[in-house]
Amino acid sequence: MAKISPQLQDQIMKLQQVQQQVELLVNQRMQLERELKEVERAVTELEQLDPANALVYKTIGAILVKADRDKVQEELKDRKETLEMRIKTITRQEERAKSDYEEKRKVIQASLQQSKMGDMGGGFPGPM
Description:
By secondary structure, the protein is mainly alpha-helical.
């Protein structure tokens, strides 16, 4: 088996970095999507409450404090919009990173194939 050239080693290292970036972006997106679902459930619950006599509490740090239902609902809707924008941004970054990963993978695969062919004498028999 042939030694891997320094250029190919560098390409492999860059591929691994892109793979880690993709994994990080996927994890971030999944975390934001979980938070978005939680916010959507809270908004739904607030909408079902009678505004006239509903008691609403929200957490601030480690404590619960009484809060105005409409204000909390507005805060949650703002948070929902922010989360949706962040999810879209991270999804685009994730798609670009995946595309970059595929391009790098194909280049490395082609280099390895050429290297393998070079080890076999190029695949063409010489004069006998």
